[in-house]
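Sequence, please.
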C-alpha cells in the first residue's frame, strides 16, 4: 500500500493546488507513471506513482487549491492489499446521481393554466431584455419634443437618472442615426460627459500559488537585504558583430541570442570577481566556485528563474541550447526542482520590451542581480570625435550585507570589459 501525499516540490512550498488528475480510481499504475499535476510556488509540476498497483482512492479533488504539504491526496494498493485510508476519508469523485422521482405539484394538477402562465412569462422575459431608462417626467417631455433618443443620453441625476440639464443643450434628433456619430467626430462638445454618472468597474483576479510566493519572497528581500544599485552604460557593437558572424554559420535552431552572450560574459565576470558570486547565510557568507546563473523568465502566472548550472565552464553554444531547453520547460510547466532552485546569481533582461534601464529586486539567497536594458543607438565620443554606438544600460542590485560598493563597482567594470570584448569571455 502506498499513500501519496502532497509533496514539497520546492524549498519554499507550504501548500499547492492539485491542478489535474491524469488517472482515475481503478486505473492500474506503475512506479514512475505520472499521475497528477500540481501547481507549486514556482511552476506546474508532475507527481509520479511510487509503487505499482491500482489507484484505490483519490482523496483530493482536481482543482483543489491551498492543499497543505503532507496532506494525503491518493492511495495506491497492490494485489491483495486492503485500503485503510479510504475507509476514513471519502473520495471527492462523486458517483452518478440518480434523478429524484418527480413530485406532483398543484400546478401539475392544473395543466390548463400552464399555457396562460407561459404566455405571461414571455412578455416578462422580453421586458428584461429591454434596457430600462430612468428619466424625470420633465426630461421625457422635452426629449419627446426634440425627438431625442433617451437611450443615447447619460444621466447625471441620482443613480444615473436623466434630468432636464442632461438634454437641454442637446440638438433636436440627438441619438438618431448619424447625428450622434457626427457630434462625436466634431469634438464631442455637445455629448454629456458628466462624471457624476460614472460607475467604477473592476474584476477580482485569483492570486495563484506562484504569485503568492513571488510576493512573499520579494517583499522579504526588500525588507531583509539592504539593496544598493550601480549602473553603467556598455557598448554592444563588438558583441553584436560577433553574434552576427557566428549565426551566419549556424542553423536556425542553434542561433545565439544577445542574452546567451550576456550570460556567458556575466559568468566570466563572476569568476574574475568572486565577491559578487556569493550568498548571505546569516552566520556566514557562502562564496561559490562556479557561476550558476538564474535567468528570469516571464510567464503568465509570474516570474520563474531557471538556472544555467556551471555557465562559466560551458561553451557559448551549450549555454544557448540550455536556455532554449529551460525556457521551453518553463513555458510548459515542466521544470524540475533542481532546474529552478538554488544558483548563485540572477540576470533579468527586459531589453526585448524596449526598457532602457531598471532596478531589479535581489532573488534571495543570491547576493546580487543584474538588470539589462535595451541596446539603443546614441552618440559617443571616441578619440576626440563624436560617433554613434549601440549602448545598453546594465544595473547591478547588490546585497550590502554580502557585497561592498567597491566590489560591486569592480564587478561592473570587469563585466563591461567582457561585453565590449566578448571574445575574452570565450577563452
Amino acid at each position: 500500500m502506498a499513500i501519496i501525499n502532497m509533496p514539497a516540490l520546492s524549498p519554499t512550498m507550504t501548500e499547492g493546488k492539485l491542478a489535474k488528475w491524469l488517472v482515475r480510481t481503478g486505473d492500474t499504475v506503475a512506479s514512475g507513471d505520472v499521475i497528477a499535476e500540481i501547481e507549486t510556488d514556482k511552476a506546474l509540476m508532475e507527481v509520479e506513482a511510487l509503487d505499482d498497483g491500482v489507484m484505490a482512492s483519490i482523496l483530493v479533488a482536481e482543482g483543489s487549491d491551498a492543499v497543505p504539504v503532507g496532506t494525503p491526496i491518493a492511495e495506491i494498493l497492490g494485489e491483495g492489499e486492503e485500503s485503510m485510508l479510504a475507509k476514513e476519508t471519502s473520495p471527492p469523485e462523486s458517483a452518478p446521481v440518480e434523478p429524484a422521482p418527480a413530485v406532483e405539484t398543484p400546478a401539475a394538477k392544473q395543466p390548463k393554466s400552464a399555457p396562460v402562465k407561459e404566455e405571461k412569462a414571455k412578455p416578462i422575459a422580453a421586458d428584461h431584455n429591454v434596457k430600462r431608462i430612468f428619466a424625470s417626467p420633465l426630461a421625457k417631455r422635452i426629449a419627446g419634443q426634440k425627438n431625442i433618443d433617451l437611450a443615447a443620453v447619460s444621466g447625471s441625476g441620482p443613480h444615473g437618472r436623466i434630468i432636464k440639464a442632461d438634454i437641454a443643450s442637446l440638438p433636436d434628433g440627438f441619438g438618431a442615426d448619424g447625428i450622434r456619430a457626427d457630434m462625436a467626430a466634431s469634438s464631442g462638445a455637445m455629448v454629456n460627459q458628466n462624471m457624476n454618472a460614472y460607475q467604477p468597474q473592476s474584476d477580482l483576479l485569483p492570486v495563484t500559488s506562484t504569485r503568492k510566493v513571488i510576493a512573499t519572497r520579494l517583499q522579504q528581500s526588500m525588507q531583509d537585504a539592504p539593496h544598493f544599485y550601480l549602473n553603467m552604460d556598455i557598448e554592444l557593437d563588438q558583441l553584436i558583430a560577433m553574434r552576427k558572424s557566428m549565426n551566419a554559420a549556424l542553423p536556425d535552431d542553434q542561433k545565439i541570442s544577445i542574452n546567451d552572450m550576456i550570460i556567458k560574459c556575466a559568468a566570466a565576470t563572476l569568476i574574475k570577481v568572486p565577491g559578487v558570486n556569493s550568498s548571505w547565510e546569516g552566520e556566514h557568507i557562502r562564496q561559490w566556485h562556479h557561476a550558476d546563473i538564474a535567468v528570469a523568465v516571464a510567464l503568465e502566472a509570474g516570474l520563474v528563474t531557471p538556472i544555467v548550472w556551471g555557465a562559466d565552464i560551458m561553451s557559448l553554444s551549450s549555454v544557448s541550447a540550455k536556455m532554449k531547453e529551460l525556457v521551453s520547460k518553463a513555458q510548459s510547466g515542466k521544470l524540475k526542482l533542481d532546474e529552478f532552485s538554488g544558483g548563485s546569481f540572477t540576470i533579468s533582461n527586459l531589453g526585448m520590451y524596449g526598457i532602457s534601464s531598471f532596478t531589479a529586486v535581489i532573488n534571495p539567497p543570491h547576493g546580487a542581480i543584474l538588470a539589462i536594458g535595451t541596446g539603443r543607438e546614441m552618440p559617443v565620443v571616441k578619440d576626440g570625435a563624436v560617433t554613434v554606438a549601440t549602448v545598453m544600460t546594465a544595473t547591478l542590485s547588490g546585497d550590502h550585507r554580502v557585497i561592498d560598493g567597491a566590489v560591486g563597482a569592480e564587478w561592473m567594470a570587469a563585466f563591461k570589459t567582457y561585453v565590449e570584448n566578448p571574445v575574452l569571455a570565450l577563452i
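Residues 88-130, 180-192 have pLDDT under 50 and may be disordered.
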